[in-house]
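Reopening this one. Same input as before:
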Amino acid sequence: MKNIFTSVHFEEVIARICNLTSESPKRWGRMTLPQMLVHCRIQLQLALGEVTAKPQGSSLMKSSFGKWVAFSQLPWPKSSKTPREMDMNKNEYDHSTVDKEKDMLIHYLKLVKQQNSLCSHPFFGKLNRKEWGRLIYKHLDHHLRQFRC
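Same output, byte for byte:
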């Protein structure tokens, strides 16, 4: 399974982010490209503890089975539930140009990659580094596919 802490997967994600342009077509969803980039950055800020969130979601998601399903090779459904802090329709976040948001996302990816331990996730609770790496990869992959990258 792909994991953001594996160098080849990290570089793959960085290259895909770099390929995004303001003209990248959206395949589904309501978020604009800048909103998607902010949404993905907030996940990384949650992992680093820069953004805090109360526990949310069902206890099933925090169970071993729930984590297994979420982190498996199965693709996530479109328009999946997201933590409140990452919901671009419920929160107003400043976002800049696509290029600046791409740079910020890459900056936070590099910060996360340097960490040995990360904070709890609002849906999944305490995650080890490998689980966080898998979750971050799957989340970014989901949204990069949303914008055809």
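So the earlier flakiness isn't reproducible anymore. For the record, The chain has a mean pLDDT of 90.
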